[in-house]
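Q: Got a minute? One more chain.
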Amino acid sequence: MVGAGDATGGAVARRFAREGYVVCATRRSQDKLEPLLSEIRAAGGLAHGFGSDARQEDQVIALVEHIESSIGAIEVLVFNIGANSPCSILSETARRYTKMWEMACLAGFLNGREVAKRMVARSAPDAQGITQRGSIIFTGATASLRGSANFAGFSGGKMALRALAQSMARELGPLGIHVAHTIIDGAIDTEFIRTLFPERYALKAQGGILNPDHIAEAYWMLHQQPRDAWTHELDLRPYMEKF
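A: Always. Here it is, folded:
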């Protein structure tokens, strides 16, 4: 779980842990992972936390190698870094724009590439001729489809991540790797939405913003799909969201 934040990332980690998966959760600050790790362990699950910058190639390579050699084969990669920082194009800086692209797309490439290498190496057919050997799920957003005012940096990175997922799916699908891209088209129940968009957050009581636990159910469903009926792109939105 790359980007195991307090909302969607944490919910997905808890959902897979309930199914017996060993969770390896990462974010830049390892200390911020402790509440999630403690919750998973208290429920009887197994979880490891790592502080890592997903934009740094050497750190990504080292982390994937450590997990594979010391914990176990990676069966599922969920890439869930947000990188959402609204700003007018008139005041946006190259540094901020580049950072958002690095977080939203470059980090997805680095983590997806390193995990895919290991998955493909294990994708020899079994006795039944089945070659499915893993799932890679990238979290997208409304910005994956269209660029709204004040979201030039975010939409640029998220659209690029969507293209990455499409390319990887076409290459890795025949090798047994299920690559999926989710479009989370709406506000999620997070501190970010509560603080910056209070009018939208007020719709929570009406089911107007996404519940992270319900998003996590969709991720689990994607991983469980048989290879003859794989979903590549799945969009999730509240019933009142316009699209």
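A: The mean pLDDT is 94.
Q: Perfect, thanks.
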